[in-house]
Amino acid sequence: MFADLSHKSKYMHIYLYNGSKDKLEPFKKSLMDWMGEDINVHIAPTPEEAINDADIVITATTSHDPVFPDFPHMLKNKLFIGIGSFQPGMWEFPQSLYTIADALFVDTEHAIVESGDITIPLEKDWITKDSIMTMTRHIEKKRLRLIVIINPEQPCLNQREWHYSTL
Asked: Do you know which Pfam families this protein is assigned to (predicted)?
């Protein structure tokens, strides 16, 4: 995911947090080797500091408890992408995120029963099944057309420019 964004701006900042502190430096090094020196990679001491100035928050944990504190003011106006909670007991997001979310998308209908970030809020009545939409349904509903243009100067798959337009 990061690689697709890396060529957009040399001012990009990535903040990393992991409960296992010893894994952060090696991951930071491999990320910088992969993405290049124009990206600023920082190690955040807390999850709060990792998301404080973020526009996009990506979680990839197998946590059984929310990774972030339940503070709506810290979660507002951000895009959250959770890829770690792939079993019903795994859970990355706090309750307030569901309360303030404008939309809730899943990749497939199976995620509604497989992902703890969906099953737990459904069980606790924080969301309804009607509030969940698959990405496919959203794209069809919006009649969104995806145009992929590969930069001929850098033909690697991780150097794509994505352009969206509404029909």
From this structure: OCD_Mu_crystall
